[in-house]
Every structure is written in structure tokens, then in C-alpha cells.
Amino acid sequence: MKPFKNLEKKCKDFTSRLEEDFSNSTSIDLNELDSKKTVLVIMDMINGFAKKGSLMDKRITELIPGIVKLQKEMIKEDFEVLAFADYHDEESPEFNSFPKHCLADSEESEIIDEIKEIGGYQLIHKNSTNGFFAPKFQEWFSKNQDKDTYILVGDCTDICIMEFGLTIKAYFDQINRNVDVIVFKDLVDTYDLGAHDGDIINLAAMHIMQNAGIKIVSNIK
Predict the structure, then answer these.
(1) pLDDT at 13 (0 to 100)
(2) Running DSSP on this structure, what letter comes out for residue 161?
(3) Predicted local distance difference test score (pLDDT) of residue 33
(4) What is the pTM of this model?
(5) How far is CA 130 from the centre of its chain?
(6) Burial of 136 (0-12, 13-18, 19+ CB in 10 A)
(7) C-beta separation of 96 from 137 below 8 A
(8) How high is the pLDDT of residue 80?
(9) pLDDT lower than 50: segments of the chain
(10) What are phi and psi of 160, to 5 degrees?
């Protein structure tokens, strides 16, 4: 591999540009969305990432108030809500890449109480980082091909959010369907761990999604 040239300056310029771009993101008015064709996807707001366990991170905990507020408002206006939850088998190959976490039927795999108390969502368990392939989502998806707007919030921006967003966008591109995939930048985040700097990785993931046609917005009006 060739040595990187001026990497520090490039990284600084890159992150500064993205911060400026995303700080100017627009908001969305729920009244402009069709509640029958729009779905809110809450990704992995579970105890194992927001409250306890080997992969818990305070950055995810801090998302709770904003996501709960959005959940309340969208349920009030009769939008459909899907809540994905990591739910792993003991033999999950994912444990080759990450510490053991969110085992099936464990407290870690449960949706956080704040979201449970509001309710109004369909729970979807997933055994991989990409919820698109979860059997229960595929069942729902086959019956809801009329949906044309997917709003994504939760964690982690660079893993489960990005994989789901890119996959569902690519699916509809393949069949020539114009579908909006929207990420609320204030309601997604990732973790800090060693070289995985949460601020930088979060920005980079949103940049990748935006380049793929996913809309990055600030929040709702």
C-alpha cells in the first residue's frame, strides 16, 4: 500500500466540509408525508446498546429522548413503526467480529423501556447487522410494497443503519422505483472504541449514504 500523503490535513478538511454540509440539513414536516406510505424504522434501540452490556455506548443512550419524541409524534399521526432488535443465536458468526452481545431472550436484546412504554410498533428480531434480511422484515416487506418513504433512526450509523438504508435503496433502484430513504442525522449515532472515532465515523457513514441517494435531514418540524 502506498503511504498516505497529507492525510491529517485531508481528514481535517473532509470532516470540516461534512460538518458544514450537514449543519445546513433541512427539516421534514410530517404533514407533507403520506402516513399510509411512510414507515419509521427504529434500529437497535435496545438495552444491549443503550443501557448495558459489552457494546453499550453513551452516545446511543443520548439518542433516546429524541427518538422517543419522534415515535410519539408519528404514532399520533398514524404512521407505521418498525423496531428492529439484535437477537443472536449462541453460534452467531457475528461474534467473530464483535464481542458476544444481545443473545436471544436476554435482557440485552429487549427494546428499551422508554420505547416499550409508548408502544405502537412492530418488533423485528435480527441475527445479523443488516435487518433487511431478517425473516420477519421480509414477511412485512412482501406485504408493504406500496411504501415509498423509509425514515431511519437509531444505531449504529455506519453498520446497521447504513447497511439497511443502502440495501433497501438498491432494491428499489433495481426495479426502477423512486423511494425516499431518509436518515435523521440528529437521531443516529455510532460508538467510540479505539480507532473507531464516533464523530468521524458518523460523518463518514452519512456521507456515504448521501452519495448513494439517501436523504440526510436534521429532524422533523
Answers:
(1) 77
(2) I
(3) 94
(4) 0.93
(5) 10
(6) middle
(7) no
(8) 98
(9) none
(10) -65, -40
DSSP H stretches of helix in 77-147: 113-118, 135-143
Give 34's contacts (C-beta < 8 A, 6+ positions apart): 148, 149
Residue 140 DSSP symbol? H
Alpha helices in 24-134 (DSSP H): 47-50, 58-61, 64-76, 113-118
- The strand ranges marked E within the chain are 38-43, 80-86, 122-126, 149-155, 180-189, 215-217
| All cell numbers assigned to 217 | 435531514
Domains of the chain, first to last: 33-42+58-84+112-195 (3.40.50.850)
pLDDT for 3 equals 65
Q: In what order do the strands lie in the sheet with 215-217?
A: 122-126, 80-86, 38-43, 149-155, 180-189, 215-217
Q: Which three cell numbers mark 196?
A: 473507531
Q: Is the separation of the CB atoms in 40 and 71 below 8 Å? A: yes
Per residue in 142-184, pLDDT (tens digit) is 999 999 999 999 999 999 999 999 999 999 999 999 999 999 9
